[in-house]
Amino acid sequence: MPKNQQRVIPRLKPVPYTLTDVSTTLKQPQLTPAVKLNQITLYNTPDLPNNKRGFKYQPCRPNHYLHSKMYSTTDLPPYGVHWSYFDRSSEMYVSENLLIAGTLEEFGWRSTRSNIAIREGRCYVEYKIVNGIDVNNENNEINLNDRNEQKTQKPHVRIGLGRREGSLEAPVGFDGYSYGIRDVKGEIVHLSKRTDIGGVDLCVGDVIGLLIELPTMELQKEISKKMILQKTLSDPIDKEIKEKDLKLLDNTLINKGIERDMIPIKYKGEMFFEEYEYTESKAMEHLLNPVTVFGERAISDKERFKPATLPGSSITLFVNGKKKCVPFEKLYAFLPPASEQKMTKSDKKGKTDFSIDVDDGSLGYYPMVSSFCGGAVEINSSNDPWIMPEDLEEKINIGEIKMYGRKFNDKVVQDVVVDLIDDAINKYLDRKEIELEN
Which Gene Ontology cellular component terms are annotated (predicted)? Predict the structure, then answer.
């Protein structure tokens, strides 16, 4: 393209940092006591921005080695995998080390996700029920006053996995973005449908393990290629991709890899990256409620939407080290176009077409728990299981199956690499702008 016809897409550039920003030491945010459950104090974090309104946040800091980007991704203590500071309901509270999450006694279902996604491979996650069904106390009921009538409610929990788009004001398993295990009879839940698998109640002290198996990112990208070329959100037809079609993928996540569009902001004196969040799509929303409304009538759909799935993917349930079953198989795909950021994809009339969004590295399945009326759950952040499953011991010891606690180091490496790539891209765009101005 001739120079006089070239153009540079307008970019939001970061505001230069100050000496005060450079000298600021990262510290754990203020913790405000909210509730005490089983002698464990849970806290609120009022000085942090919650992921909402289509935006998400993560800590950042000035970095003089990144000449154009100027800020690098970082984390807040305690360092490691834990329940997220940002990705949880505002009425879901955490322990000082962020390993236990729960609600107040008067709250209904609230949820939280962990801070690091599982994107590929085999990973084992452990949860421990801290407050919930108590086999030693059948009367562990919480008294609630509602319209001057005395009611009783027992604390409950649900455990599972969820994607970024899943609701945090509803229990895991509520929608198509999450897969849950109930504490009552160990029932499984997906799309709000409960299935009895012949289990028993999951009680206080029980250790629940989930083995997550996902295909490689290479295979997942092949699925995304076919979905993009066939313009479908369901399983694509398995046919060979022609060479001429590859040009249509030039500007998609397939060739770009991880791509982030975030800007540093200040919130209550601290620095955070703000970025568009992945939001619920109309197709997945319709999956939860498959009806079409005509005036005052709602008619069930004859042909229901079936989201694209990941071949070979599954969730295997372990209770106190014993394998119970494989409650979920063929998990839904999460790479675009299966996930989208609505805020960035709309035409002048506000209508959203079939969109091919970016993969910013946060897509995947997250350990997720839900609490009801004082329920609480702890996540294992270590590199070793609390209870080693006999079926998995050899594969865990040789690293064929990774403990979830090891994901933190992988995330640090990914953030450093992507920060360097982002800075290199920004430097290139800066040079192009200067050339065109001259």
Answer: Set1C/COMPASS complex
Contact call for residues 167 and 285 (beta carbons, < 8 A): no
Residue showing tokens 């649900």: 158
- Domain around 215: 3-437
> What is d(CA 345, CA 409) in angstroms, rounded to the nearest whole number?
33
CB distance 376 to 94 below 8 Å: no
- Residues 100-112: what's their mean pLDDT? 93
Contacts 24+ apart (CB under 8 A), 427-432: 427/67, 427/68, 429/8, 429/11, 430/68, 432/6, 432/8
**pLDDT beyond 50 at 147:** no
Q: What total number of domains does the chain contain?
A: 1
Confidence of residue 351 (pLDDT cuts 50, 70, 90): very low
Provide the pairing of β-strand 270-276 with 178-182.
unpaired
Burial 383-395, CB ≥16 within 10 A → b, else e: eebebebeebeee
Q: Count Cβ atoms below 10 Å from residue 381 Cβ, excluding itself.
A: 21
Report the distance separating Cα 224 and Cα 322, nearest Å.
36
Does the CA dihedral 44-50-52-58 come out positive or negative? Answer: negative
Three-state secondary structure call for residue 124: strand
Tokens of 122: 């085999």
Any idea what the CATH number is for the domain that residue 367 is in?
2.60.120.920
Measured CA to CA in angstroms, residue 428 lies from 54, 424, 432 at distances of 29, 6, 6
pLDDT surpassing 70 at residue 345? no
